[in-house]
Specification:
By secondary structure, the chain is α+β, with helices and mostly antiparallel strands. It has 2 helices and 4 strands; from the N terminus they run ββααββ. It has a domain at about 20-70 and about 80-100. A hairpin with a 2-residue loop joins strand 3 and strand 4 (about 90-105). The radius of gyration is 17 Å and the shape is elongated. It starts with a strand and ends with a strand. The relative contact order is 0.33.
Length: about 100
């Protein structure tokens, strides 16, 4: 599956637009990691526990978007984007979305 943030795939022609492909993931940190992150937040700097958690969340959202696009017969997803939001204190959603397309052979 080809994933690009551009409106087209360089060197390839879009044969057909299939439509919106999307995948999301919601994650929260375990209490022990959340407490450790809170302590790190007090002194400043990167919070590696959250960095890792959000990276895993992004990957799962992309995997689900790709599965959605494949199930609909797509070869690629163009104009791919991420959106995130806080669901509740300590839990975040990441949504990966884009336009599923069929490329000309």
């Amino acid at each position: 599956m080809i994933l690009v943030t551009t409106d087209g795939v360089p060197g390839r022609e879009i044969d057909r637009v299939i439509g919106l492909a999307r995948g999301s993931s919601v994650r929260s940190a375990p209490a022990t990691e959340d407490f450790h992150a809170w302590l790190e937040n007090m002194v400043g700097g990167e919070i590696p526990e959250y960095t890792k958690l959000l990276a895993q969340c992004r990957e799962q959202a992309v995997d689900r978007m790709v599965a959605d696009a494949r199930a609909r017969g797509a070869d690629a997803v163009v104009a791919m984007r991420f959106v995130s939001c806080e669901i509740t204190s300590g839990a975040a959603e990441i949504l990966a979305y884009g336009t599923a397309v069929k490329l000309r052979a």
